[in-house]
Design a protein that fits this description.
244 residues, Rossmann fold, five-stranded parallel β-sheet
């Protein structure tokens, strides 16, 4: 009589996915799932000028079946200096040349460093070694914390400054990794990737300055890049826009 031994079922690897409620982070969540990770989504109420994106993040997390969705409350209004955390006007109707020059007033000082630090703490408590973030260095508005060099530097720091990184290295465990799968994609390529993974972009919000009802303005840098991405795919944007 032969005995067939079944291979043990391997539990999916956990990962923390930063989920803003926007197009990019929804795509990254879908990529994490495609790659076999069990995603633990994390969003932030950080004093931003609108909370529509949090409602979107909740809808996305619900529709994509995350293990849990943590919403962290912090207040970056204490530091100001950004149109997203103060009453400074959001720039509108800028052309591509203007968007490619300098760091815009919508940059929130140290935001991705703060968000990744929270994600890193969460990953340690989960025993996870993987964090996903939707930063992009091609179709982006000049943010210094959206570059590949920044992601690599944070990953190196994470492996130096955490118990998981230090003790893991001593026993040959996998190093902590910061995944930025969109870093070298255009907005059009990101949208194409997400559509192939079944992302419902109607659930997302990208606008820096939406109406009280959550309708996108269609005029800020984020809207311009998003609309350009859909147009380059020959598709209408399924998001809701305020009447012009």
């Amino acid at each position: 009589m032969s005995v067939v031994q079944n291979s043990p079922i391997q539990a999916p690897r956990r990962a923390v996915v930063l989920l803003s409620g926007g197009l990019d982070s929804a795509t990254v969540l879908a990529i994490a799932k495609r790659d076999g990770f069990l995603p633990h989504a994390m969003s932030f109420r950080y004093g931003q000028r609108h909370l529509h994106e949090i409602a979107c993040a909740q809808r996305i997390a619900g529709s994509m079946g995350v293990a849990e969705h943590t919403i962290v409350d912090i207040d970056l209004r204490a530091f100001g200096a950004s149109a997203l955390t103060t009453d400074i006007a959001v720039p509108k109707d800028r052309d591509a040349a203007s968007m490619s020059q300098g760091i815009p007033i919508t940059y929130v000082p140290a935001r991705n460093t703060i968000f990744l630090s929270f994600a890193l703490a969460k990953a340690e408590t989960l025993g996870a070694t993987d964090i996903f973030i939707g930063v992009n260095a091609l179709d982006y508005s000049g943010y210094p914390d959206c570059r590949a060099e920044y992601v690599a530097a944070f990953e190196a720091m994470a492996n130096l400054a955490t118990r998981a990184g230090v003790e893991g290295a001593a026993v040959g465990a996998p190093a902590l990794r910061i995944h930025a799968p969109l870093i070298e994609l255009t907005k059009a390529q990101i949208i194409r990737t997400g559509l192939g993974l079944g992302v419902n972009y109607a659930l997302t919000s990208t606008c820096y300055d939406p109406s009280p009802a959550g309708e996108a303005c269609g005029r800020c840098d984020a809207c311009a890049l998003r609309l350009k991405g859909f147009a380059e795919n020959g598709l209408p944007d399924p998001g809701a826009y305020a009447a012009s």
